[in-house]
Design a protein that fits this description.
Distance between the termini: 24 Å
Number of helices: 15
Radius of gyration: 22 Å
Number of strands: 15
Structural class: alpha/beta
Protein name: Glycosyltransferase
CATH superfamily of the largest domain: Glycogen Phosphorylase B
CATH class of the largest domain: Alpha Beta
Helix content: 25-40%
CATH topology of the largest domain: Rossmann fold
Largest sheet: 7 strands, parallel
Pfam family, one: Glycos_transf_1
EC number: 2.4.-.-
Strand content: 15-25%
Organism: Roseibium porphyridii
Enzyme class: transferase
Order of helices and strands: EHEEHEHEHEHEEEEHEHEHEHEHEHHHHH
Strand order of the largest sheet: 3-2-1-4-5-6-7
Shape: globular
Number of domains: 2
Length: 427
Amino acid sequence: MHIVFVHRHGPGQFVHLARRLISDGWTATLICESMDRPVPGLRVFRYGDKPGGQGRSGEISGKGSVPYIVAGRRVADILNKLSLNGRKPDLVMGHIGWGGMLFVKDALPDVPAIGYCEYYFQPQGGDLGFAPTEEVSLHHRQTVRLRNTVQLATLDQIDIGISPTAWQKSRFPQEFQSKIVVQHEGIDTSRARPDSVASFRLPNGRLLTAGDPVVTFAARSLEPYRGFPQFVKAAALVATQIPEAQFVIAGGDGVSYGRQTGNASELRDRLVAETGLPQDRAHFLGQVPHQDLVKLFQVSAAHVYLTYPFVLSWSFLEAMACEAPIIASNTAPVQEVIRHKRNGTLVDFWDTNALADEVCAALSDPKSSFDMRRAARRTVVDRFELSGCTLRLQSMLQKASSLRARMSAPAKNSKQMRQPILERGHA
């Protein structure tokens, strides 16, 4: 079986699935703009120079959908060449957000197309307008609609959609939700696991161990979308009440989501200065290797995860799997996973005093969170464990591949054309 993955910065969410399929003897090809990590055995085609003006994930750009159309055409050209050279895939699976899947059916009309449906922008109920000071203007609403045009055109012609959480699926238009299956890509709970003798060495040489009063925060970038300003404000309050607390922050100074509002490192320095967070107790690591991030979660006495109503982070689920005590924002994607005081603690995203109080409580009485920590790991093992998730995804792909003959042959009647690809039980 030959599968082609399409992702702007691949393999992205397909990394675990690609490894699984390759180990099972599949041929796997990736078409991408850039690589975020290597996968042995994965053949890679890059679709040329970066089209200008695409913007970051979550950013509502005023440049329209032209760059995404360019990306879609380049991907279709590569698919067409593969077909002409005798390497036609049996399946194409790709992220629908950046245009790469837009013309897959024009290049390969008889090949099942599976779209990864990560996030559909709406003018209300999600990230846009979540900040009380953000005004959603007519221009914003127009650019949101433009941002979604490529996704709508892709949704119309893919055979199956996959969304990692039910809330993310719910953001898509109702008329397309019947073809979207909720299935997370999976968390490796054999690597992200508790370790009572874990340790983490800070850049200054200090060794932190499990049981120390360590407050952790992790995000791809330290930015408003992931609640970084609220964390710093709360951390400064905690620092005054618990002098021995150490604050360890993993994340880059760039902007991964939302709009650039200034220099990210200047934002960090300004927040630290304004709040009085002790610089000798606040340790900014930048982006760290994954194995170090796991160690950080293993020594955490209070892990803070804040997010706008947006896509759910892998790091959040990995922290849960490591049995780090979770204190998280009560926003929609988090509420799908955390039950207050059962497997974690929920606080209002904007209430830094409440956040500080919960962090202090976790540090002052570590034993009180024992049951919640155990329940947090069980949640991840039961719902997001890697082997189960990849097995279910592989099963979906195998069912989809059986459609190829039916898709290439003329339908005998209209009932055959309307037959669903997947049984409703998978939705």
